[in-house]
Amino acid sequence: MRAGEGFPAGEIIDATEHVFSGSNTYDFPTVPVWHRGRMIIIGDAAHATSPASGQGASMALEDAVTLAKCLRDLPAAYTAYENLRRKRVERVVAQGKRNGDGKAWTGSAGCSCRSCSSSWPGTAAGRAGPTATASSGTSGSASEGPEGIGVVGGG
């Protein structure tokens, strides 16, 4: 959304007491179980990756295809899906963390630079007026799969 295009992005940004910098990322702990009863989590809800890995959407698509095949072909579909996916996604998440850790600004000089960069003109955090964009961050979605099976995914 851009301000000035019929959306209230500018007013929302201006009304916000503190706009958080988008440079900090936090590691999501491993989820011990991806399913319980008739509910299952997929994508970022099950295994959020660092933005540095660039793998979030690809892994969510892999999850969807794998889950669909398991639901079609196997009696214990959820357990099979998790067993097929867990090793790969945990490897990708770990690699993304290693990649992202090398890009982090640390120490007093790095923190000062990071703090200054979030208020540079032309950035949303710098409240750049009509060119500022508003982002709701990570969003998730829920839908009902076959036979009333709940599927929750992040993205």
Q: How many strands, what sense, and barrel or not for the largest sheet? A: 4 strands, mixed
> What is the assembly state of the chains in this entry?
single chain
Rg, rounded, reads: 19 Å
Distance between the termini: 18 Å
The strand line-up of the biggest sheet is 1-2-4-3
Helical coverage, percent range: 40-55%
Which series of helices and strands comes N to C? Answer: HEEHHHHEE
Number of helices: 5
Ranges where pLDDT stays below 50 over 5 or more residues in a row are: 123-148
- Count the beta strands: 4
Residue-averaged pLDDT, rounded? 73
Strand content: 5-15%
Structural class label = alpha+beta
Structure, briefly:
The protein is extended.
Describe the structure.
With 155 residues, the protein is an alpha+beta fold. The chain contains five helices and four strands, in the order αββααααββ. It has a four-stranded mixed sheet with strand order 1-2-4-3. A hairpin with a 5-residue loop joins β3 (140-144) and β4. α3 (56-73) packs antiparallel against α4 (77-101). The longest helix is centred in the middle third of the chain and has 25 residues, at 77-101. The radius of gyration is 19 Å and the shape is extended.
Topology:
Blueprint: H1 9-15, E1 35-36, E2 39-43, H2 44-47, H3 56-73, H4 77-101, H5 107-117, E3 140-144, E4 150-154
Parallel strand pairs: 2-4
Antiparallel strand pairs: 1-2, 3-4
Helix pairs in contact: 3-4
